[in-house]
Write a structure and sequence with these properties.
- 21% of the residues lie in helices and 30% in strands.
- It contains four helices and six strands, in the order βαβαβββαβα.
- 33% of the residues are buried.
- The protein has 165 residues and is α+β, with helices and mostly antiparallel strands.
- It has a six-stranded mixed beta sheet.
- The longest helix has 13 residues.
Amino acid sequence: MAYWLMKSNPKFFGITDLERLETDDWDGVRNYRARNFMRDDMRVGDKVIFYHSSAKPSGVAGIMTISKAGFPDPSQFHPEHRHYDPLATEDTPRWYMVEVTFELAFTDILPLSELKFLPALEDSLLLKKGCEQLTIIPLEPKHWHAIMSMAETLGVLPSEAKIYL
């Protein structure tokens, strides 16, 4: 099992949207590095931190699981869709997505301003300069556990989520 952090602007799709839907496709990603993570590295059962970006505050909102490994994003093939890519074909898709399933929402956002103080995250892509725009970030187990421990300490990790520590 691997650990990930995936960012979404909650104005467009937030943790409450995923909770309502239970399972959804993580579509519309148009960054090659993120595409490669979804296409090549994400596996069913991987744990994912749902991160609200471009929000006040930005930070960790909950947990989800990869429920279907990478597959072509169909929006790339439809000219009327905002994620259409004229260079993509059914035989040579350019963009991939994964399916995610809701696990839990934090009781409040664990803000980035707090995460910056975690020594265990010093080497993470989340805090690395120049990586702010990455929408999908691999996490090492130590990163995952440090974030979960901080969430528990700050009281934003629901009691039923202690299994993630």
